[in-house]
Amino acid sequence: MDNRTLAATAAGAVIGGAAGYLFFTDRGRALRRQIEPALDDIARELISFRATVQKAAGVANEGWKLLNEALGEAGQQPPRYPGTRQTSPF
């Protein structure tokens, strides 16, 4: 048995023991009831943080657009195939 297998087995045993304690004992259920409101608060904060990051990304995107417009680079994209021109065979 290699070290990774042993570590995975030990981690699984610890997680399983913790889950069993939280769901199948009276003290574990009481502890879980105390922890649940804190977890709900953390989830709300994470959702709020994600919204803040999305707003900041939108503001940064608008800033880049304005900078490009100010420099006169708006709407000017490099040609897809520079230097090649298709000619008519006729």
What does this structure look like?
The mean pLDDT is 87. The chain starts with a helix and ends in a 20-residue tail after the last helix. α1 (3-24) crosses α2 (26-70). The protein has a domain at 9-70. Helices cover 74% and strands 0% of the residues. With 90 residues, it is mainly alpha-helical.
What's the SSE blueprint?
Blueprint: H1 3-24, H2 26-70
Helix pairs in contact: 1-2
Gross morphology is elongated
Q: What is the overall pLDDT average?
A: 87
Largest sheet: none
State the share of residues found in helices, binned by percent.
Answer: over 70%
Spatial extent as radius of gyration:
29 Å
Q: What's the total number of strands?
A: 0
Distance between the termini: 75 Å
Unreliable sequence segments: none
Give the count of helical stretches.
2
Strand content: under 5%
Classification by helices and strands: mainly alpha
Task: Give the SSE string.
Answer: HH
In short:
Helices cover 74% and strands 0% of the residues. The longest helix has 45 residues.
Which structural traits does this protein have?
90 residues, mainly alpha
